[in-house]
Structures are given as C-alpha cells and as structure tokens.
Amino acid sequence: MAITFKNVTHVYQPGGPLEYEGLTNVSFEIPDGCFTAIIGQTGSGKSTLVQHINALLKPTSGTIKIGERIITSETKNKHLKPLRQQVGMVFQLPEQQLFAETVLDDISFGPQNFGMTQQQAQKTAYQMLDLVRLPASVASKSPFDLSGGQMRRVAIAGVLASQPTVLILDEPTAGLDPQGHQELMDLFYQLNQQGTTIILISHQMEDVARYAQQVLVMDQAHLIRDDQPQAIFNDRAFLQAHNLLEPESTQFARQLAQKGFKFNKLPITEEQLAQQLIPQLGGHYG
Fold first, then answer.
1. pLDDT tens digits, residue range 262-276?
2. Alpha-carbon 181 to chain mean position
3. Parallel, antiparallel, or unpaired: how do β-strands 166-170 and 197-201 relate?
4. How many angstroms separate the Cα of 220 from the Cα of each of 51, 57, 79, 217?
5. Whole domain around residue 176: which residue ranges?
C-alpha cells in the first residue's frame, strides 16, 4: 500500500500549558513495496510520525492516505480495525508487547482478534515461529521464560502473524548481538522482497545505507529531506549540519581518499567500498 502524508501537523496537549507540536506540516509519499528508513535525532518526531501510519495517533490537521483509506482528525476509531490489521508495528523493545501465558497464545492473539479461527491462528503462529527462527518447542513455554533475544523474536512473530502489508519497525534490533541483529535485518529484507512495505526507524546508518530505497530525515518535528540513501550520505555538509553520522564504509573511504585512493562516488556500503577498492589493490571484484 502506498502511504501519503499531506500537510500533517500533530499537536500534543492542545490548549494546555505544555502544548507542543510533534509534527509540523509534514508531507511525503512512500510507494507501495518500498523499504523506507526514517532517521533523525532523538525527539525529532520519528516515532510520532510512524504512529500516525496505523492511526495510534491522528493528525491535528492535514490528511493521511494509507492505500485507499483517508485518515484525518475526524476519523473514528471504530473504523480503523481493518487498517490496523494491514499496518503492523514493532515498537522499541517489542518484548514489552508480550502478555499471554504461552508463546503460542501470544502469537495467535492478533490473528484471532482480526477474525481467524483458533485453529487457523495457531497454525499461523507455528509458521511465524519458523519464520523468525525459533523452534516449535517454545510454543508451550511462557514468553517470559525466554532469553531477551527470543522474546524479541516472539513479539515480532506476533506482529507478522496478522500478515500486514505494511510493517513499521522502531529500532527493532536495539540491544541485540551482531548475529541476532543481522538475522532480523535479513528477515525484514526478505519480507520486503516479497512485497511488504517496510518502514524502519534506525540510528544504525549502516542498515539504512544497505537496505533502504528511500530515506526521510526528521528534525524538530519537521521533515527536512526525502531522498535516496546515496544522495544523503554523500552530502557531508547536510549530515554535519543535522548531527547525523555517515555509514562506517563512507567514513573509511574518506580516510582512504586522503591517502590517495580514488572513488567516483563515496561508497555507503561494504559492497560498494569493496567494488571500488579491490581493483585499486590489484584484485578483481565479483
């Protein structure tokens, strides 16, 4: 599903002494099936933005279009259940979303809430366990008896069990070891290749550079840039002005350039770095 924001503003605590804008006149479009990353400093409006996509928050002004559904300040919650099935959200520390007595009950809760029979929901739950690389034997266990990494996977499986067409990920790999991080990012990439629209909030610029096709940059409740990763990460002045880091591959390439290596454009991923560097070292890439 394509996602369009048009002049969206969200005001927290309107009319009160602590009133402030979480979003200010934000407009953009995410194409259907895109892998989009949202970056920016803490407090810039990233989480506020994505919570509008499944209508956990509604705009104070402006309009949001998700597929064919329009969301405004007047939209009633009772009309939003179909949208929330289509738009899944994995919060920061998703293991805090767990609540059921067993892993099976936790994963199958969402599908049953959206109309699946218990038998169908449990079959889906086992499929999701396999998808997130957990053994079927954990289904009967309490999710709170699992390791932190396993709990994270159970929470993600619970979101995926409702088979969303849009998946929002708010720092989904925070705190995981490198292997767990890579396995989950590979899963999200696989889902995107199968047609799921992925929206990733991340401070990991390597992930943004490697996976994203579109990058939205937030700063103080404003959308200040909507561009491709290559253009953003090759714009050093822009990154410095907004306190954003370059990917490690780009930083390394800059150091190499000072030592005489040539780059027709600064690489932003390890693959791009190797492609340009290996021939200069007398080797062959690929």
1. 988 899 999 999 999
2. 13
3. parallel
4. 17, 18, 31, 10
5. 3-93+164-243
